[in-house]
Design a protein that fits this description.
Strand 11, helix 8 and strand 12 form a beta-alpha-beta unit. The protein contains 14 helices and 23 strands. The chain has two domains: about 270 residues, Aldehyde Dehydrogenase, Chain A, domain 1 (3-Layer(aba) Sandwich); about 190 residues, Aldehyde Dehydrogenase, Chain A, domain 2, CATH 3.40.309.10. It is an alpha/beta fold. It is globular. The chain has a seven-stranded mixed beta sheet, with helices on both faces. Bound molecules: adenosine-5'-diphosphate.
Length: about 475
């Protein structure tokens, strides 16, 4: 095994794969972050077998032991925060400050679930039958497959792996092909936390190939997935269509999140929410505010102010100190963004700002894109219906709060939704009637806390919520015991 190739982690051993793939820096495509092994299907099966064997040992440890292991992982993430933020910015293109925030969030998630590991309890309830009592408790589900996307290479793995481990499950982790670096670093940290060998396994490589094993293997009891809607559907079909028992599954997919700005909004606040929600992290967040729904009275002031603020967004190398907006993650995502920008123009929207791709930054070849704002758009335009997943937002002009609410909910998605208003009446109504898993009042649609539920409705999500105490729904199974003394 070459030292240069970062291997998989299976059954407590670091194992090279049949081949390896280069991890390329989107801020400078000449820079290769490293070579990362790609696991074979046989290795994925080995990982599942190892997880199955280790899970009872891990579940048999005391809650305090599990808690301490998770706490060690959280502490190590904090100790290595600067190094990991640099790696994240380098391989994914997230601006360094945001990348550092993501490492902190991942650490907080492990610390939170270190606490939750100690709080797994149950209920004792009387029976309808005399002398009988009924106990209700939570048990681990078993072996969990974790499949993650590239846009939060540490936080999303953390919010799946930490609860899986906290509740006594074993994990096989398959990160996105574009970001094996953070996944490997996290595996390295978990490997040092003293879990029984096989409790946590990392298999890197191609989704479709490894998916055949990690979704279909009947020894996998649960699948937690974040990614595209089309892959989400495949996960669901595999989970129920495979031979043997069906797998429990949880899907987080796209969003087309509305930010409603009403006439009585504080315009500066609305601009700040839109700027952050739509463009930070290069718009590559499933909670990004891609539809800015603005009432007549404030429309022109809002658009003028937002364009002025966008002029201040410095696009550049993710690790350069002034950069606010890093590059798009890779060539195919940039191509997708440009295709939607072109489509918006062809459908009659006005490109009021930005939208130009830049082949380099200070001579560094990369996937740079100036954030784009469309105005004069209608709810039926493709750019307002499909998730673009880039720094592209559209303004939809509406006459009043009623129309704003209708347009906000007119989408197949339902992850996050925001309203900017100074009226308690409007805030209360939007909070109640927005069809989304998360509602933000005078706050960006993106940017969530690590200790409370995350998830959506309609086409955005399937299954129980992630994060916070609600994560127990997915990562445990309930047992009801009747005791006749
Ligand atoms: P994105 O557009 O965010 O890359 P994908 O849905 O393509 O979304 O990828 C999300 C994750 O799903 C990645 O880890 C990818 O490797 C994995 N994946 C892709 N195809 C499959 C599949 N057929 N089975 C299992 N996992 C898959």
């Amino acid at each position: 095994m070459s030292d240069l190739i970062k291997p998989n982690f299976i059954a407590g051993e670091w194992l090279a794969g049949p081949d390896a793939a280069p991890n390329v820096n989107p801020s400078d495509t000449r820079d290769v972050v490293g070579l990362y092994a790609r696991a074979s299907q046989a290795q994925a099966r080995m990982a599942v077998a190892a997880a199955q064997a280790a899970q009872p040992l891990w579940a048999a440890q005391t809650p305090m032991q599990r808690s301490e292991a998770l706490d060690r992982i959280g502490s190590e993430l904090l100790t290595r925060r600067a190094e990991l933020a640099d790696l994240l910015a380098r391989e994914e293109g997230k601006a360094l400050g945001d990348a550092s925030g993501e490492v902190l969030r991942a650490a907080h998630i492990f610390k939170f679930f270190a606490g939750e590991a100690l709080r797994v309890g149950g209920e004792l309830i009387g029976s309808t039958r005399p002398n009988m009592s009924v106990e209700i408790c939570r048990e681990p589900v078993g072996v969990v497959t974790v499949i993650t996307p590239w846009n939060f290479p540490l936080a999303i793995p953390a919010w799946k792996i930490a609860p899986a481990l906290a509740y006594g499950n074993a994990v096989v982790f398959k990160p996105a092909e574009l970001v094996p670096g953070c996944a490997w670093a996290l595996a390295d940290i978990i490997a040092g936390a003293g879990l029984p060998a096989g409790t946590f396994n990392l298999v890197m490589g191609r989704g479709r190939e490894l998916g055949e094993v990690l979704l279909e293997d009947p020894r996998v009891q649960a699948i937690t997935f974040t990614g595209s809607e089309s892959t989400g559907r495949k996960v669901a079909l595999s989970a129920v269509g495979r031979s043997g028992p069906m797998a429990k599954f949880q899907l987080e997919m796209g969003g087309k999140n509305p930010l409603v700005v009403l006439d009585d909004a504080d315009v500066d606040q609305a601009i700040a929410c839109a700027l952050n929600g739509a463009f930070y992290s290069t718009g590559q967040r499933c909670t990004a505010s891609s539809r800015l729904i603005v009432t007549d009275g404030v429309h022109d002031r809002f658009v003028a102010g937002l364009i002025q603020a966008m002029e201040g967004l410095v696009v550049g190398d993710a690790r350069a100190p002034d950069t606010v907006i890093g590059p798009v993650v890779d060539a195919s995502q940039l191509e997708q963004d440009m295709r939607y920008i072109d489509l918006g123009l062809r459908e009659g929207a006005t490109l009021a700002y930005g939208g130009k791709a830049q082949k380099d930054w200070n001579g560094q070849p990369g996937f740079y894109l100036q954030p784009a704002l469309f105005t004069d758009t209608t709810p039926s335009m493709t750019i307002n219906r499909e998730e673009i997943f880039g720094p592209v937002a559209s303004v939809i002009r509406v006459s009043d709060a009623d129309e704003a609410l209708r347009v906000a909910n007119d989408t197949p998605f339902g992850l996050s939704a925001g309203v900017v208003t100074q009226s308690l009446k409007h805030a209360a109504r939007f909070k109640r009637d927005l069809q989304a898993g998360m509602v933000m009042v005078n706050a960006p649609t993106a940017g969530v806390d690590p200790h409370v539920p995350f998830g959506g409705r309609k086409g955005s999500s399937y299954g129980p919520r992630e994060q916070g105490r609600y994560a127990a729904e997915f990562f445990t199974t309930v047992k009801t015991t009747y005791i006749n003394p």
